[in-house]
Amino acid sequence: MRKRQIIIDCDPGLDDAVALLLAFAATDRLDVLGITTVAGNVRGGLTFRNARIIRDVAGLDRNVPVCAGAPRPLVRDPVTAEDFHGTTGLGGLDLPKPKGRASRQHAVNFLIKTLRATKGFPATLVVTGPMTNVALALTMAPDIAEGLSEIVVMGGADREGGNITPHAEFNIFADPHAAQTVFQSGIAMRVLSLDVTHQLLTDDTMVERVRALGSPQAIIAADLLAASNRLEESVKARHAPLHDPSTLLALLRPDLFEGRKARVSVVMEEGERFGKTLPDYRHDGHVEWCTDVDKEAVFAELLGQLGRYPL
Ligand code: BDR
Ligand code: CA
């Protein structure tokens, strides 16, 4: 079976970094065409740097292009999340400076060029940050929809309520206008919202199981998860949800997730509900809104994939 081609648009970010390590572990199933970065958890220069650091940590895929994208949201003022990711975005982990090549191509141009080339065998776009780059690419070149089989997004919340405001989840709140553009595109989407990621709290035992896998990559993944827990506990008094890695886990093991078809819009009017996602559940929806997950099996899959890195 041919590998699934994916592009990961991200804002690393502790959990984005774990998602990248997961993608690079699963190279037998996934062909990572590129990584595009966007301003989000920290400013754009740092997310670009962090993505290249993690590509080096993975070690196997130095040639995968990493392209920097939008340095700010489309309309609203920038918002960041250092409380949950530390000032560098990687929770203060002491990792070497990036060595691999930094692409000079803008992320939006990379998305357009790559997705025009995948029209014969459409690719999957995994989005783990604000959707600014994706909205710009779809606006500049709507024909790229033909090169896309699906957009898999971590973002939004329905029954769970928000994490950055009582109503809004961070990735959507950070660029609601971009999110609205992508949700209204009609492209097939799968959404891993807080409704599922809040079912995936990463306890200390799981962090230690990841560490015990023993490879350098697994140890760094454990450090990232532990830093995430430490920061989450200081702000929310609980373990950190496995937000961004859930996108890759849903791609690798769709059987572990349940969902409902929906059409989704975003509240863009200023006010307390600004950035809230509004899924309208209906059979003709093009969005699969994930609602439930088999937690034990998902964590087993995470361990299985990270366990593929050689000792
Ligand atoms: C999302 O917001 C970011 O802080 C995380 O990286 C994740 O993508 C969770 O709301
Ligand atoms: Ca993220």
What descriptors fit this protein?
311 residues; alpha/beta; Inosine-uridine Nucleoside N-ribohydrolase, Chain A; nine-stranded mixed beta sheet; 9 strands; binds beta-D-ribofuranose; binds calcium ion
Structure characterization notes:
There is one protein chain. This protein is an alpha/beta fold and 311 residues long. It has a single domain (4-306), classed as Inosine-uridine Nucleoside N-ribohydrolase, Chain A (Alpha-Beta Complex), CATH 3.90.245. Helices cover 38% and strands 18% of the residues. The chain has twelve helices and nine strands. The chain has helices spanning 14-25, 44-58, 82-85, 107-117, 132-140, 170-174, 176-183, 194-197, 204-212, 216-236, 245-252, 295-306, and strands at residues 4-10, 30-37, 66-68, 123-127, 148-154, 189-192, 257-266, 277-281, 287-293. It has a nine-stranded mixed β-sheet, with helices on both faces. Helix 2 (44-58) links the parallel strand 2 (30-37) and strand 3. Helix 5 crosses helix 7. The radius of gyration is 17 Å and the shape is globular. The protein starts with a strand and ends in a 5-residue tail after the last helix. Bound molecules: beta-D-ribofuranose and calcium ion.
